[in-house]
Fold this sequence. Notes:
With 294 residues, the protein is α/β, with parallel strands linked by helices. The chain has ten helices and nine strands. α1 crosses α3 (45-81), α2 (21-40) packs antiparallel against α3 and α5 packs across α6.
Amino acid sequence: HYQAVLGLAREEFGTYRGVGLEQLLTRMEAFSLNMRLYAEAGTDDHQQLINDGLLREFREKTACARSAVVEVLSRLTTQTIEGDIGTLAERSRHGSWHTRLAAQCQDGDTIASFNYDTMIDHSIKWERPWLWAPEGGTYGQPVLFSPNGRWVRRKDVQRGLVEILKLHGSIHFCSSDRGPQLVEDPVQNPDPLIIPPVFGKPIEEWAFLSQVWRRAAGRISETTALVVVGYSAPTADQRAQALLGAKGKPLEFILILNPSREDANHVLSLFSRRIQADPIIAIRPGLEDLFEFV
Length: 294
C-alpha cells in the first residue's frame, strides 16, 4: 500500500517528496472528471469505445489508489498515535495535551475534529467519564459497541455529555448492518470509516457522517465561543471552509492556535461575517496558550 501511494505520486508529480495526500488526491479527482467529460464527448462508436476504455482504466486506478491511501492513513495513524489501554493510562497520568484538554471540558461542550485518531476519545472517557456517552450522542448519534469493551460508559458516574464530532471519520469507526459501530482494536479494523483529504468529500455515501456534518454545522453556528487548534483550512477543503464560514450567532470569543500566522489569519477570515461589536480575538502559536485562555 505504501509503495502504491508513493508510486502514484512519483508518476503524477515526478517525485513523491513534498507531495501531500490532499494534493495527490485532488489531482486524481480532477483527472477523473476530465476523463469522464472526455468519454462523454466521443463523436462515433469507435471513439466512444476507446474513451470508455480509458475511463474504466483510470477509474480502476483511482479506486485502487484511494483504497491504498485509506489503508496507509489508517495504519500510520494507528502505529504512530494509538496505544493500548495501559499505555494510554500511563500517558494520561503524565498529562498529555489531549488529557489536559479533556480535563477542561464541561457538560454541553462540543469538539469537532478532522483527525482520524482516537486520542481525544480516550482522553474524554478517561478524564471525564461522566461526560462520555457513545450510546447517547457522544458522536452526534448513538453508535454500537461491545457491552464489555473499552468504549463502555462507567455505571457509577452521573450523566452528562461532551460531543466529539469526527468530521473525517475515525480509525475505530466501521459500518455494520445495524448502523455505525466502534471497533475494539483499530489495528484490526478491516474497513475503517475515514474520508481521505480530497476536494469533493463523499460525505453523502455514509448516512452516519452526513448526520455528523449536519450536527457540527448546527453547533458551530450556535456557539459564541470558538477555539480552533492546529487547523489551517486548506484551500482544497471547500466543504470544511463552507462549514466554518456559514452564518451564525455573533462570536464573543475566538482563540486560534497555529504556528503559522498566515494560516491563522486565513482561518479567522472565515468567521468574518460573525465578528461584530468587540469580540475577544486571540491568535497564538502554541498549545500552551490554550490552557491559559480556557
